[in-house]
Amino acid sequence: MSASLVNNLHFENWSSNHVSDWLKGLDDVIQQYVVHFKDKDVNGKKLMMLTHYDLEKIGVRKLGHQELILEAVDLLRSLRYDYETENLQSLALQLGCKARSLFNEVQPRNLENDPNMANHSHSSRSRPHQLSVEILSSVADLIITLKCVIQWLDRAPFDRIYDMILLRNTLVKLGIDLISACQKDTTDSNPEEKISTACHMLADYCDGLVVSNSETLSIQPASLEHTTIRKKPGEELGMTIHSAYYGVHVIGDIRGRSPADLCGKIEKGDEVVQVDQKTVVGWQLQRLVDTLKEKPKEVHLLLKKRPHHISPYGQLPNKRHQNTNLLQPQVNTLPSKKRRSREGEHNKQPRPSLQEFVSSVPSEDLYTPR
Fold it and tell me: What range(s) does the SAM domain occupy (predicted)?
């Protein structure tokens, strides 16, 4: 990967102006704090080490607003430090370790071996049990890693592999089970048991993905690629963009023969990292769309691409461009006069004489006057 692409990810080198410009793309409720970040001279290094305590000192006191900022900063950290090593197998290993750790933390105690629990009445055990803050924090951390795994499985080429589709659907269901068990209004008398079951299944599926999976795509990391879309003033780019989850923007459908298609480097599932040197990770989708419309003729994109290799030595062909030759008009040209004359000399047959022609026709078929 070129040094220029790597330098684009050195967010710790941002000035306070770069940080302010990036914050302007976040949620609308964050815009009121842009001035506070500017006054506190928060540069890229401080941004990458931001905590709840730092946000309190800056002036962001609402917990929900703090979480919005910190989630966006987490996306920057992940892109900065993990993109070269992050792959499906490593994420599955992380998810399996977190699931097994949470399983050991919430595994129901054996009532027969625990005298403290044995003395409790049946009515006290049947009441809904409130989960501890430590368990809730561990579940939240596990869900973050689970979202990363699902994000990989949602895109090409994994979304075309049947086993991966089944795995993705199963992981989503287990994630929903974990979240529902942590709700305050849950009717489960023992939510730890539900969390324990989901974690056990998650660990088993992750172990299977890490150990028994022979698909080389799962061990290959993502890559960055720069591309330029050239278009006429007022012309649409010809592609759709949606948010896989908040702050992560993914290329959707691409219209054939459009500027996005003709540039030859954009594929469905690519993640938009920068637009004209502006980092859009963590931004609102509408802010990204508005930025794409600012330039009338050229749009420069930095894309994060999922692996498309069938082996470490080559890439799968782009299916959108496999049949482009069929669209080219077939031009049939006549041979030149010189060529026709040469071919005629080699293939020229002796001209039959009149006598040979007459003798070859049966006599009864000859025309005779009346």
Answer: 14-79
